[in-house]
Specification:
The complex is a heterodimer of chains A (469) and B (184). Chain A is α/β, with parallel strands linked by helices and 469 residues long. Chain A has 17 helices and eleven strands. Chain B is built from seven helices and four strands. Chain B has helices spanning 13-20, 33-44, 49-59, 63-72, 92-95, 99-110, 153-164; strands at residues 84-89, 123-128, 140-142, 147-148. The chains are: A alpha/beta (469), B alpha+beta (184). Chains A and B meet through helix 5, helix 7, strand 3, strand 7 and strand 11 of A and helix 2, helix 4 and helix 5 of B. The complex binds flavin mononucleotide, iron/sulfur cluster and FE2/S2 (inorganic) cluster. Residues 55-59, 61, 63, 82, 84-87, 171, 173-175, 208-210, 213, 393-395, 398 of chain A line the site of flavin mononucleotide.
């Protein structure tokens, strides 16, 4: 196999690559000039379809196919670029926006030309303050140079890109949550259908694409669908930005062909597990995707292979490594806390479920767990989300998957923890304690306890010591 | 008998002009809710009720609709924020490297709970879910755009010292403070 040549990150090491002159000197906007002059929008859609590019935002939906769902007789199309990147451990979109903003703008230009959208809203999470400034400048530069605005490169095609800043809500990354937020409302995902392609932002046909997805487009048009399909694994073609963080020696973002294994990522790119320790478990693609055990490290991180491990999918390809000193109770407590914080509260199973997960994990962690809790957790996790069909969006699936995987793969550890960590005081939740102290608005702070197994009576006695509700 | 007190509008004309400048970008005025709330919070360091009523009038919607949106997003605050707002991440990659402990440490230093503002009004400390700075985990961010990480307790103290000196206009794209042990 020929050596892999990075394309999405090819300008990252070049000084001032975020400026227009440098981007153009590196061949930038050539694809756009040629396409706008020589190709029809439908031909661009066709090429992207042939490349079998799949969305990089999490769901892996084929991009070209998504574009063909737009009504043929539409008067107007809107493009939304999803730059809300908030999935824990994910920072690849940030790299693309900060280090090569014109690559993204060229991708947006081509995506909009293909779908005949003349307005594009780039929904950027507020926390990306640097990216906001860099993109603002890059858009101005591109407009001044005629890459945006009216009659771009004499093609008769017009395009404006507007930056729209979020306000700290993970759920606005869900495409219809994003659309509601863009319209000035709370970010409550919509019931589908209708899908955005039929009725999206401002009730107009709308395409929502991720930053990295669009960054692939100029290269596909430049080098062809066959080139794109020569990279990666079957059904998962092209280059991908993987991020590695957590217990590794180097926390980095690297571009690799789709389908690298977790082991390769950790050893060759993350500098190995830190402190000379062993890997215990890996989050494969943002916490929503679940958990892989050390025995599954040779799984290919692509859209297909990963599912064999029981994980939800590739997600954002954000790999978090946990060493053998990590408690799975801490891991699960952390993910449950995240989803309880980020559920939009619209569907009962998700609103109540995520809150209950988080409270239960807090109680277990603090020493008030019961073995039955694990069965209830597992049962609830089975019944919450769009997979079983009980919620509006996939956040609930993301909340359920870490529980499913952690309990299926590490149940003995949870049982062991519950047996050896019994503290009657922990049966009262931190919130109940706060209320008892007359400070009901206290944030819920987890009280640390250190309990030794030997100091504890056998479990039945400990359970009896916990006062009932 | 009722007494009426008349107070002038709190949104100045230049601020209103900035809000109106967003109108041409969207097919509906309501879409300017978030941009308007951002402008107001940037200006007042909070979102006063009166400002929401005035935004509503500008956008031709009701104050309740503005409030509904405002209250959904963790970003907006009705209590005045400190001069610099610092977010400390507690999501998975940071938590694995001590994010929760750092947040607790920072809160103790300032004598406040997460979301609280130091007595001198200079720093608001907030818990955050993933800031997208996991390559610098455990990481923190301030609302002037400066990023910090990987952090430990001594470097967190330096973050607070720096934040106490006020916001900067031109944040660099790389961390301004990192733990000694992680510098190369
Ligand atoms: C809870 C939730 C959060 C999401 N967050 C993001 C996000 O931050 N960025 C993103 O691109 N897609 C996110 N998605 C996926 C989007 O809904 C959508 O599939 C994607 O933006 C489509 O773009 P793509 O086809 O180019 O991947 C999220 C989905 C869910 C259910
Ligand atoms: S599944 Fe959860 S996050 Fe998604 S719409 Fe329902 S309540 Fe909101
Ligand atoms: S997990 Fe802390 S910045 Fe991403």
């Amino acid at each position: 196999m020929p050596a892999f040549e990075p394309v999405l990150t090819r300008n990252f090491a070049i000084p001032d690559a975020h400026t227009l002159p440098v981007y153009e000197a590196r061949g930038g906007y050539q694809a756009a000039r040629r396409v706008l002059k020589d190709l029809s929008p439908d031909a661009v859609v066709q090429l992207v379809k042939e490349s079998e590019l799949r969305g990089r935002g999490g769901a892996g939906f084929p991009t070209g196919m998504k574009w063909t769902f737009l009504p043929k007789d539409r008067k107007e199309t809107l493009m939304c670029i999803n730059a809300d990147e908030s999935e824990p451990a994910t920072f690849n979109n940030r790299q693309l926006m900060e280090r090569d903003p014109h690559q993204l703008i060229e991708g947006i230009l081509l995506g909009c030309f293909a779908t005949r959208a003349s307005v594009a809203y780039l929904y950027l999470r507020f926390e990306y303050i640097n990216a906001f400034r860099i993109l603002e400048r890059a858009i101005d530069e591109a407009r001044a140079a005629g890459h945006l605005g009216k009659n771009i490169h004499g093609s008769g095609f017009d395009l404006e890109i507007y930056l729209h800043r979020g306000a700290g809500a993970y759920i606005c990354g869900e495409e219809t949550g994003l659309i509601e937020s863009l319209e000035g409302k709370r970010g409550w995902p919509r019931i589908k259908p209708p899908f955005p392609a039929i009725e999206g932002a401002f009730r107009k046909p709308t395409v929502v694409n991720n930053v990295e997805t669009l960054c692939c487009v100029p290269h596909i048009l430049d080098r062809g669908a066959a080139w794109f399909k020569s990279i990666g694994t079957p059904k998962s073609y092209g280059p991908k930005l993987y991020t590695i963080s957590g217990h590794v020696n180097r926390q980095v973002c690297v571009e690799l062909p789709l389908g690298v294994t977790a082991r390769e990522l950790i050893d060759e790119h993350g500098g190995g597990c830190w402190k000379g320790r062993q890997v215990k478990a890996v989050v494969p693609g943002g916490i929503s995707m679940g958990l892989m055990s050390a025995a599954e490290l040779d799984t290919k991180l692509d859209f297909e292979d990963i599912r064999k491990t029981g994980c939800l999918g590739l997600g954002t390809a954000a790999v978090t490594v946990m060493d053998d000193h990590t408690s799975m109770v801490d891991y699960l407590h952390n993910t449950c806390r995240f989803f309880a914080h980020e559920s939009c509260g619209q569907c009962t199973p998700c609103r109540e479920g995520t809150t209950w997960f988080s409270k239960t994990m807090t109680r277990i962690k603090a020493g008030g767990g019961r073995i039955e809790d694990l069965d209830i957790l597992r049962h609830l996790a089975q019944n919450m989300g769009i997979t079983p069909g009980t919620t509006i969006c996939g956040l609930a699936d993301g909340a359920a998957w870490p529980i499913r995987n952690a309990l299926d793969k590490f149940r003995p550890e949870f049982e062991d923890y519950i047996r050896t960590h019994q503290n009657p005081a922990a049966a009262v939740t931190p919130l109940q304690q706060a209320v008892a102290r007359g400070k009901p608005t206290d944030p819920v702070v987890l009280h640390q306890i250190q309990l030794k197994a030997a100091a504890l009576a056998a479990r039945p006695a400990a359970v009896a010591a916990i006062p009932g509700p | 008998m009722t007494t009426t007190t008349t107070t002038g509008p709190i949104l100045s004309e230049p601020l209103r002009e900035k809000i109106r400048a967003f109108f041409p970008r969207y097919p509906s005025k309501r879409a300017v809710t978030l941009p308007a709330l951002h402008l107001v919070q940037e200006h007042f360091r909070c979102v006063p009720n009166q400002a929401m009523a005035e935004i509503a009038e500008l956008l031709e919607i009701t104050p309740a609709e503005v409030h509904d949106t405002m209250s959904f997003y963790g970003f907006f605050s009705q209590a005045p924020l400190g001069d610099v707002r610092v977010w400390v991440c507690r999501s998975i990659s940071c938590a694995l490297r001590g994010g929760d402990e750092l947040l607790r440490h920072a809160c103790q230093r300032l004598g406040v709970e997460p979301g609280g503002t130091s007595a001198d009004g200079k720093i608001t400390i907030e818990l955050a879910e993933c800031l997208g700075l996991c390559d610098y985990a455990p990481a923190a961010l301030s609302d002037d755009g400066r990023i910090y990480g990987p952090l430990d307790e001594p470097s967190m103290d330096r973050v607070l010292e720096l934040a106490r000196q006020g916001p900067v206009a031109d944040p660099p794209p790389t961390p301004v403070i990192a733990a000694e042990s992680t510098r190369h």
